[in-house]
Structures
1.
Amino acid sequence: QMTEFTIAKYKICILDDDPAVLQSMRFLLETHGFKVRTFSAAVTLLTSVDPADVDCLVIDYKLPHMDGLDVAARLRQQNVAAPIVLITGYPNRHMTEKAAAAGIDYILFKPHLEDSLVMRVREAISRQYPA
């Protein structure tokens, strides 16, 4: 079980082009003690993420220019090993396979983010860093 103390050092990057969603996810994760960096453009995330300095990424599927699967695949090419949580409001049968192929660890469906976001991020991190 993660204590608030151990969580404090974990860094989360969130990518979403909707400012309201970005802010609510930031607030939610910061309330639970995570350090959060937010990005509203894929290119900004891809050019500024340090593989050694991120513990989990939360990425929206529907983005302008490239979708969340493309972003995830590029992060993996950049040797980002941190778990990736994909957020989508557009579930379909092939999404799970495509997501796995792109290196995505978890998929969360809108609009039920509040319930599961913190839980999924914690689960992703504790799998990545087993006690």
Note: The first strand starts at residue 11 and ends at 15.
2.
Amino acid sequence: MKPNPVVWFELYTQDIQRARAFYESVFKCQLEALKTPEGVAPGMQMLSFPGDMTSMGAGGALVRMDGVSPGGGGTVVYFACDDCAVEQGRVEKAGGKVFRPKFSIGQYGHCALVTDAEGNLIGLHSMQ
């Protein structure tokens, strides 16, 4: 296995526009529609997070697909932040909930755990 093996993630939604509003509000970014590959899943919708294939980290997207539901299920995607308390402060106004407010993880920085507007548990990480 290569170092930093995760290359892509998907967060599933029931209401992709509600999910879009949450992530764009919390992270102050614009999500971009992705064309669904032919034959994958009729009616599938995808919105990608900003990405840069030349830098470290994984790209990802919000996905609405028949038969797949959002919700906490054991995998947590952590989003990099300058200070995770800032994004945490936007969560409830955007329709999510703070599960565990910013806390120290020692030499590895700080984290916060929140649920998005679809019920997915996500992490916020910062060194500050």
Note: The chain has a mean pLDDT of 92.
